[in-house]
Amino acid sequence: MTDEKEHLPTPGGDDPNVRYLAEHTDLSPKQARELIAEHGNDREKLLRIARTIKAES
Prior knowledge:
mainly alpha
């Protein structure tokens, strides 16, 4: 028996911020990772940016 956690497939993998953005916006996990890499981990700021990305599309 192992002590490893079972990993279920979730959008964004193990990064909770990527997962949060992917679940609360129309961004893909890849887009969410890129947004976090460029703008940091402030969720409110990231959500504002994600909404503008959606509006521009």
